[in-house]
Amino acid sequence: MENFVVSARKYRPITFDTVVGQGSITNTLKNAIRNNTLAQAFLFCGPRGVGKTTCARIMAKTINCLNPTENMEACNECESCRAFNNNASFNIYELDAASNNSVEDIRSLVDQVRIPPQIGQYKVYIIDEVHMLSAAAFNAFLKTLEEPPAYAKFILATTEKHKIIPTILSRCQIFDFKRITVDDIAKHLAYVAQSEGVNAEPEALNIIAQKADGALRDALSIFDQMVSFSGKNITYKDVIDNLNVLDYDYYFQIVDHILQGRTSDILLILNDIISKGFEPQHFVSGMGNHLRSLMVCKDPSTVQLLEVSEQLRQRYLTQSQACPMPFLIRALEINNKCDIDYRAANNKRLHLEIALLKMCALCSQALNMPAAQAQPVQMPQNRPVQQPTPQSTLPQASQPKPQPQPQPASQQPPVQQTPQPSVQQPVSQPQPQPVVRPRGTTSSISINKAMQQAEQKAEEKEEAWDSPFTQEQLAASWTDFVSRYKNISPNFAAALGKYTPRLMEGSEIHFSVDNLLFERDTEGVTALKHHLKNSLHNNQFKLMPEVMERPAEIEAYTDKDKFEKMVEEHPFLRTMQTELKLEGDL
Q: Which of 72, 298, 342, 510 could form a cystine bridge with 30, CB 3.0-4.6 A?
């Protein structure tokens, strides 16, 4: 039975030109050999499986070659090259510092340095995992490393450069090897598959390259594993089944359902994923990568950041056109918070389901529509003018919107009687730019720009509603919203309910708030606008918030504020808190 040689050894590069993904380093080394400007010591550092030891061996072989080529590659024909290929060269020594890390080992190496080479020009010492040397061994190595004989060259390789003492670093030329890109690994795997007579799908090789995380050796090991699993035909399905990789098609389906507001389908897909044995946190990580890929596809200049196959890239480009940028940013924030809090959650599945439902509700709010009637973002929306009803004042994901009722001609806005340019004119007018709050008593508050853009796009697809309303109607609608929204966000509702809004000329609604809570709660702002639009049957109003100067006496809202006010009247409470060591929210 013939001995099997793993692909990582069988297809190990033997020349500088065959090294994968490290072109800048190999060109520098070849130029140094060509110009005869070789340093006495080199330090090759970087992640595992990126070619550090391989480049060290190629360099040792090349500088000892008796007849190098014009491209500064070894000839593989001279006596030195043949000895190297047969692992019989006496000019090249490899030392594993992980198992030879004592002072005695380094002293033995120093003694060998004194003997000149028998064949070739240089004696090369390759010390792998050099960071494993002890501090005493490093100190014993300093003098020889700094002033070795002219024929001695040292090549140190490590994955943890930060563990090497500065005195060693200062005596070496440092080359930082980078992680190999997914495209380079996939191309090399295709070459290996062709050489071995293996028929491999490009998508399958791309998944293997992503799983390797920049290490070519790991990719070749996974490739050998897949050949053992599926024989001479490697398919995408075989790879995801064998490597426990979640199919990216799940993420495309979930995002489509989020855009369309199909919460039931989202929960069913999540149940299917979990039933197949995938860890929910693994899904959260993959969902974050998927949303990030959609975000980089929004700009043609960042599409190159996608490390996927060309077919999959087209799918990302197509779906990214249906996703507004504000939605992607907020969805990434929700997904990231879900990932951070996942381990601390008691009901992990519910924790993940809530995050997905938040994304679904977020998309509906960005479109200024209830989630139950949310349509795909890429589809045009031609919604008729709707009669406001009490049930439709707040966007509810679980309740459908009532059908619009016909309105008397005396009350209906003159949309049909006005030419088309005049109808679109109020919508296309630019909104007043938010002003940075000065140090005075009042100022305008800047609303989240991303949410404004999403709302503006949604409003451009609606017909203009311009029914007149009175101060009394505005106050009643405002009070109704505060009472309804109290259960959703008590702080936001309390901030709006403290002052009465004022109707000004031009359908401007001026109202006051005590702090910047209104600026941060973009979801509440969207709900408020939706409620006023439906209850007042007017979408041409403008919200003009003003921050009031805080009075000297600040009203206590939280338990801590209430406790501090009680301490002002009864100082002994502070002594009681200290003696009893009361902590918590106080």
A: 72
State the pLDDT at residue 433. 46
**Which residue bears the tokens 């009680």?**
566
The three-class DSSP label of residue 545 is strand
Q: Look at residues 385, 354, 388 and name the one whose alpha carbon lies nearest to residue 280.
A: 354
Task: Tell me which residue has tokens 């919460």.
Answer: 263
Which comes out higher in pLDDT, residue 355 or 120? Answer: 355
Residue 6 dihedral angles phi and psi, to the nearest 5°: -65, 155
More confident residue, 188 or 526: 188
Question: What's the first-to-final CA gap in the chain, in angstroms?
Answer: 76
Q: For the chain, give the mean pLDDT.
A: 78
d(CA 561, CA 72): 76
Answer yes or no: are the C-beta atoms of 511 and 471 closer than 8 Å: no
Only one residue has tokens 């005596």, namely: 171
pLDDT > 70: percent of the chain: 79
What sign does the dihedral 339-367-326-394 (CA atoms) show? negative
Phi and psi dihedrals of 535, rounded to 5? -75, -35
Neighbouring residues of 417: CB distance < 8 A, sequence distance ≥ 6:
none
